[in-house]
Structures are given as structure tokens and as C-alpha cells.
């Protein structure tokens, strides 16, 4: 059961969050009148409902987004003015940080402390970063003969659909909508069905900040209905997706079967953490544990495979196991909690079934390996480490998206790189070593969009983030993110 303090907060928040979609600057019910339930993963209780939008609502949102784009009140606004409004939007997110954090925790069960100090300020920071950037991006003047002047300018693509996952609901959304809005586009955001609250809440904040009505629309709904309708819409120019590899590929099909819209994909991973014999083992153990157990392993770049040299494997394992056992798993509203429940019953079953598969295929459990806190009705699992894993096992090849680490031993750096790269994915990787030449060699050889040396999951908005291979293409964060949401136009002037 949820405690009383939390229930009264939910009541207050739900009064300001109707079960409607935000289209054209107003709250509207799904045309079908349907709603979908929101479940708190800490107890399995239904705590509210939101609109269950489908293709008809997507049509409305696209019409509204297109009209706003054509009107030019945002798309042709001076970048300096867009910048000012984006900065105000960011401030409003921060001013509402406590409520937004609570909504995030209610939807996905992450510790409230993390939502308050991580997810929400990070989303606000992203909005501010792209706001700050947008009036500092220049066009080009071409080298032409004297009779001509040629300029190339970036123009917003038009209507952008953003379909995002539940693991960091607001910050993953911000990685899409912030650069898209800053560049002058109209946006339709579809949050994951498990985590619609913060997306809906900030839709109003966007209008309050001064973003014209119709420019930023938020539709809650399921992937197969609302998500697919956005992907297939003939008047959506760009579809930015973060989620699983399987669904990402569907968006490519949707695009191919509709208007050939551009699609960018930030997909899954099976990121290796390579630990070499000369590494600082305490630092590596801390990095490995944080790399797989933060956000209960529900992180696209989770370091879910440790590829470690034989000689130091036992020592490293002992240290990581110790860290895993120290993690307090429990009520996400308790300040002492370090790991909350998994997001949903479906994810719970999936992670538990991978634990069984690991054992069936011959790996051994070094710690964890099952359910926790069953009496709560919530979806809690123990931080789990599998030893004696070989890279062909399913737990080493498939994305589990839970707090489950596979430990794979190798004889030397060369074999480590081979095993690390022997995966369909290529989102992230790390190498732990005190030898600078080894660090250079291995980091260059790792096939991943992000490589960390003697650290894991470090970064800020300034560097691009995205995958190689089946982990997708296109980059979020950094000025490169703007590429997806703009088209270059070349104009030639005759004298
Ligand atoms: P998911 O692919 O199931 O869902 C993501 C989004 O797609 C949701 O909004 C969902 O409603 C929608 N969707 C689902 N089925 C659809 C369909 N048939 N048609 C259209 N839309 C559909 O992923 P998830 O379970 O929400 O998130 C976990 C996945 O996201 C993991 O694979 C993880 O690695 C990935 N992820 C990647 C990154 C990254 O930056 N690379 C970041 C976070 C999460």
C-alpha cells in the first residue's frame, strides 16, 4: 500500500493532470473516450488513468502542429527569442522539480532522490543547453565565382514526432524535443504508456513559458496505436525514436510504407566493461557496479557484460559482489533506497526469466538471482551477478534491461576486445587500465558510439550520444542533434 503522505500528494497532482492529451495548447480527451491505467511499480497498484490516444488523436495533433508550423510564430521566430523562451521553459521545469520528480517516481518506481537530483534537473539542463545553442549556430557562404553569392542555411524540418521509452521518461524526451523545438519545429511527443505523467505535465509548462499553442503537443497512448500512427503519418517529417531495437526497426518500415520520413533510432545495448590486469580495481569495481545497477539496470548503455582478464577476475568479482550486496532495494520514496522496483510486471517477468536462462545455460550466480520484497506487490529483484558466463550465452547476447551482470573472463587485451565487440550492439563500452597506450589501443578498437576510459556513464550535453550497429543511428545531445531536425537549404543569388 502507498503511504498516506504519498497518496495525498497524488491526489493533489492528479487534479492538475487530467486524463487528457495536450493538443493545440488545450487538454482534450481521446476521441475514442478511452483511457489507460497508470500503475505504481512499487506496489502494483493502479494510481490513475491517462488518455488512450490512437490514430484519430494523432491526426488532430499533426494538424495542429502543422498549422502552428505554417503560421511561423515559432518556426520563423528570431532564434534569440526562441532562446529566451527555451530558457524560461527550463526554469519552469526546475521550479516544478519536486512535483515532476514525484510523478516520475510514481510512474516508473525510481528512487525519488534520483528523480529529484538526476532526471528532472537533467531534462531542464537539456532544454537550457539547446536554447542557449540555437542563436549561436551559423549558416554557410559557398565559394563561388564573383558573379554569384551562394548561401546555405538550416531550416526546421517541420513536424517532428518523438516516441520515447520509460527508463528516464523526461530526460529521454528532452533529448528529442529540446533540440527539435529550439530549431523551430513543431513537436508531437508520445511518452511510453508506462510513464506519461511528466510529459503531460510539462506540455502546460511549455505554453506557460511562451511556446505558442500547437507547437508542442503530448499524446499518451500505446505504441501499437498512437506510436504506429505517428510513424505512419503522411504529414510527419521526422520521427525521433528511443526504445528497443525491434520497435526501432518497425519505425523504419512505417516510414518506408508511408512518406519516407527521416527516422532516427537510439536503441538498445549490451555494453562491455573491459577490465585489464593493470586497472585500479577499486575504481573499476565501483564503475562496474554503478554501470549495471543504477536505475535497476534499466539503462540503454548499462554495462551488462564485464570482460575481465583471468588473473584479476576473482578479486574484481569479490569487490563488485560486495557493492551489489550493499545496495538497499526498496520503497522508492524512502531516502535510503538505492534501487527501486522494475518498471512493470512485464519487465519483472522478463528479467526473472533471464535469470533462469542464465542458470540453464551453465552460468553460476555470484549474488542475487531472484525476487525481493514480494509482500509489497511491487516488482523488486535482487542485484544479480552471473559468473562463468561465456559470450555465446543468451544472458551475454541479449539486452535484459535489469540489474543483471554477466562476468566473462579472457586471457589478454586482444581477446578482451574481440569478446567486447562480439555483439550485435554498439551503444557504449569502457576500458579500465592504467597503461595509456593500452587505453588508446583498446578504446580505438571498441566498436561503440561512446567509449569511457577509467570511468563509466560520464558525460554532459556537449558530446554526441548514440549507437553503432544494431544500437541505432543518429545522435542525441550536442550540436549534432540539431542535424536531425533541420534541412540545409542552398540559395544562389545572381548579381
Ligand atoms: P519499447 O521499444 O518497447 O518502447 C519505446 C516506445 O515505443 C514507447 O513509447 C512505446 O509505446 C513505443 N512502441 C512500442 N511498440 C510500438 C509499435 N509497435 N509501434 C510504435 N511504437 C511502439 O522500449 P521500452 O521498453 O520502452 O524501453 C526499453 C528499450 O529502450 C531498451 O531496449 C533500451 O535499450 C532502449 N533505450 C535506448 C536508449 C538510447 O539512447 N539508445 C535510451 C533509453 C532506452
What's this model, at a glance?
The chain contains 16 helices and 22 strands. It is of the alpha/beta class. Strands 14-17-18-13-12-19-20 form a 7-stranded mixed sheet, with helices on both faces. It has a 6-stranded mixed sheet with strand order 9-8-7-10-11-21, sandwiched between helices. Strands 5-6-22 form a 3-stranded antiparallel sheet.
Question: What order do the helices and strands come in, and which of them pair?
Answer:
Elements: H1 4-15, E1 21-23, E2 26-28, E3 35-40, E4 45-51, H2 55-71, H3 79-95, H4 97-108, H5 112-134, E5 140-141, E6 148-156, E7 159-163, H6 169-182, E8 186-190, H7 197-209, E9 216-218, H8 223-232, E10 238-242, H9 245-257, E11 262-266, E12 272-275, H10 281-293, E13 305-309, H11 310-326, H12 345-360, E14 364-367, E15 371-372, E16 380-381, E17 384-387, H13 394-397, E18 404-410, H14 413-421, E19 428-432, H15 436-445, E20 450-453, E21 472-473, H16 481-484, E22 486-494
Parallel strand pairs: 7-8, 7-10, 8-9, 10-11, 12-13, 12-19, 13-18, 17-18, 19-20
Antiparallel strand pairs: 1-2, 3-4, 5-6, 6-22, 11-21, 14-17, 15-16
Helix pairs in contact: 2-8, 3-5, 3-7, 4-5, 5-6, 10-11
The structure holds nicotinamide-adenine-dinucleotide (NAD).
Explain what this protein looks like in three dimensions.
- By secondary structure, this protein is of the alpha/beta class.
- It folds into two domains: 4-267 and 471-491, Aldehyde Dehydrogenase, Chain A, domain 1 (3-Layer(aba) Sandwich), CATH 3.40.605; 272-460, Aldehyde Dehydrogenase, Chain A, domain 2 (3-Layer(aba) Sandwich), CATH 3.40.309.10.
- It has 16 helices and 22 strands.
- The strands form six sheets. Strands 14-17-18-13-12-19-20 form a seven-stranded mixed beta sheet, sandwiched between helices. A six-stranded mixed beta sheet has the order 9-8-7-10-11-21, sandwiched between helices.
- The termini are far apart.
- The mean pLDDT is 97.
- Residues 163-167, 172, 190, 192-193, 222-224, 227-228, 231, 242-244, 247, 250, 266-269, 300, 399, 401, 427, 467, 472 line the site of nicotinamide-adenine-dinucleotide.
- Nicotinamide-adenine-dinucleotide (NAD) is lined by residues 163-167, 172, 190, 192-193, 222-224, 227-228, 231, 242-244, 247, 250, 266-269, 300, 399, 401, 427, 467, 472.
